[in-house]
Write a structure and sequence with these properties.
This protein is of the alpha/beta class and 366 residues long. It has 2 domains: 172 residues, Rossmann fold (3-Layer(aba) Sandwich); 175 residues, Dihydrodipicolinate Reductase, domain 2 (2-Layer Sandwich). Helices cover 29% and strands 20% of the residues. The strands form 3 sheets. Strands 9-6-10-13-12-11 form a 6-stranded mixed beta sheet. Helix 1 crosses helix 12 and helix 7 packs parallel to helix 9. The longest helix has 17 residues. The radius of gyration is 20 Å and the shape is globular.
């Protein structure tokens, strides 16, 4: 399908000089629908060209199309209808609401608004219908065009992607142990003397997020609120010495007793509802099962589907809960910036970004 609309939508990136902000900038380069025209940084970087202000920590260099842009201060007025936020929690708490109230659609990676009842916590393949909360949010808050849409904690991402196809079997209990990459801590992240030759059995706040966000994303929209999945989650989170990629080992109790082959078939046929499979950032195979006994592996499988797919493996019987497996997602792509971009694409396709409807535009020029 031709994803190129007749025109692109101007977008801004908050926290653009940080690690996740840089991932936004990188993924938005040559995006068929969106065009970065504003980058926002700290008071230290404001007023400088982005190419000079950003201490680039990703592969390659800052995109030429963005390098010349002057970094704006957080309090500056923005013109872009769509704003991607990589702000830390404290800065996001007030600024995201201010921008939404001023008419901007804010797709955020920050945690502060994720569990607010009228804020969609979106993982489009799993809960695209939760996007309807945008209209409820606008009606409640008196926002005509503005909105806040969140994506989840990066470690919840592979858990939800792996369990969403299993909901028809009745998910009842979930036990998760994570092995989380250091990039999940931002830049400069974990001190080298703490993480080299080491595993740290604590990631601040992530266990609580896994135990709540997972159930909200796997829940169903019930009127003007999300009814959480009726299940129990226990999570233990660990920081490990890899750069990118969060691996989780999951044990799950299912009300039905499907065979292992039936579970693999559910993963294989899983796709998001329309229009999710048509969106530019959506992977062709959202969940891929790897039959090798020692996969998925972080270094070998984190970039599956351009970093947007979840790799699952080692499905076997669990003597405690019934089934167990491993799942892996790229934490700064699928688990952060990439999911926010996919969320924005869903909003655009649903006509929730002012008058910008790229799928209709693209089809009209075929």
């Amino acid at each position: 399908m031709n994803h190129q609309p007749a025109r692109k939508l101007d977008v801004a990136v908050l926290g653009a000089t940080g690690a996740v902000g840089q991932r936004f900038v990188q993924l938005l380069e040559n995006h068929p629908w969106f065009h970065v025209v504003e980058v926002i940084g700290s008071s230290r970087t404001a007023g400088r060209p982005y190419g000079e202000a950003a201490n680039w920590v990703l592969d390659g260099s800052p995109p030429a199309s963005v390098s010349h842009l002057t970094v704006k201060a957080l309090e500056d007025e923005l013109s872009s209808p769509l704003v991607f936020s990589a702000l830390p929690k404290d800065a996001a708490e007030t600024r995201e609401v201010e921008l939404a109230a001023a008419g901007h659609v804010v797709c955020t990676n920050a945690s502060v608004n994720r569990m607010v009842e009228d804020v969609p916590l979106l993982l489009p393949e799993a809960n695209a219908d939760h996007v309807r909360l945008v209209e409820i949010q606008r009606a409640r808050r008196g926002w005509r065009t503005g909105a806040i849409i969140a994506n989840s904690n990066c470690t919840a991402m592979p858990v939800v992607m792996a369990l969403a196809p299993l909901r028809p079997f009745g998910v009842k209990k979930i036990f998760v142990v994570s092995a989380q990459a250091v990039s999940g801590a931002g830049y400069p992240g974990v001190a080298s003397l703490d993480i080299l030759d080491n595993i740290v059995p604590y990631v601040s706040g992530d266990e609580e997020k896994l135990e709540t966000e997972t159930l909200r994303m796997l829940g169903s929209l019930d009127g003007d609120r999300v009814k959480w999945l009726d299940a129990v989650v226990s999570a233990s989170c660990n920081r490990v010495p890899v750069v990118d990629g969060h691996l989780v080992t999951v044990s799950v109790e299912l009300e039905a007793r499907p065979s292992l082959d039936e579970i693999c078939a559910a993963w294989d046929r899983f796709r998001g509802p329309q229009p999710v499979p048509q969106l530019p950032s959506a992977p062709e195979q959202p969940v891929q099962y790897l039959p090798q006994i020692d996969r998925p592996q972080t270094r070998r499988d984190r970039n599956a589907g351009s970093g947007m797919a979840t790799s699952v493996g080692r499905l076997r019987e669990c003597p405690l809960l019934g089934y167990k497996f491993a799942a892996l997602s790229h934490n700064t792509i699928r688990g952060a910036a990439g999911c926010s971009i996919l969320n924005a694409e869903l909003l655009a396709a649903q006509g929730l970004l002012v008058d910008f409807q790229p799928l209709a535009q693209a089809q009209s020029v075929l």
